[in-house]
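EI: anyone free to look at a 178-residue chain?
SC: sure, send it
EI:
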Amino acid sequence: MDQLGIRDIKPPLNFQTGYAFLITVLAIAVISFLIFLTIYLFRKRAKLKDSRQVMHPKKAHEIAYAALRLLKSRNLPGSGFVKEYYFEISKIARAYIENRFSLKAPEMTTEEFLYSVKDSSILTITQKNIVKEFLNRCDLVKFAKYGPTADEIEVSFDTTKRLVDETKIENREKVSIE
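SC: here you go
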């Protein structure tokens, strides 16, 4: 078969492994495992430390006050965006109600929301009436193309702030949104 350029297979090489080689490979494996374990535990500890910091979210009224300040600073009605202003202020009020009372207010229509709080004790009768008037006023502007006056716009803002003031969990001090 040598004439065709085909040769027979070479026999396997005899690879001599001593105890020194096996101990070296085992030591490298153990050291690699210890390095991996140290990195894993360090990262897990860092994540745990981060999660403890996240466990103290802002209170519902703090979030609402910040959103109201931002809304006021944007001056949407002054720029001619009254409808957008009412969408935003309604969203702020609904988000506050959801965060404060664990109601899915942003996902409900005004009628569904009012029906869900009608028989509950989470709001006083006066507060329920305030929320009802506020949400109906917002719906008029958002969906019926009602053009509110500057005073009505200010009343809507004050109503939202008053709702937060009266229902927040902490002490009932007045907060300036200026």
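EI: The helical segments are 19-54, 60-74, 82-101, 110-118, 125-143, 150-167.
SC: 👍
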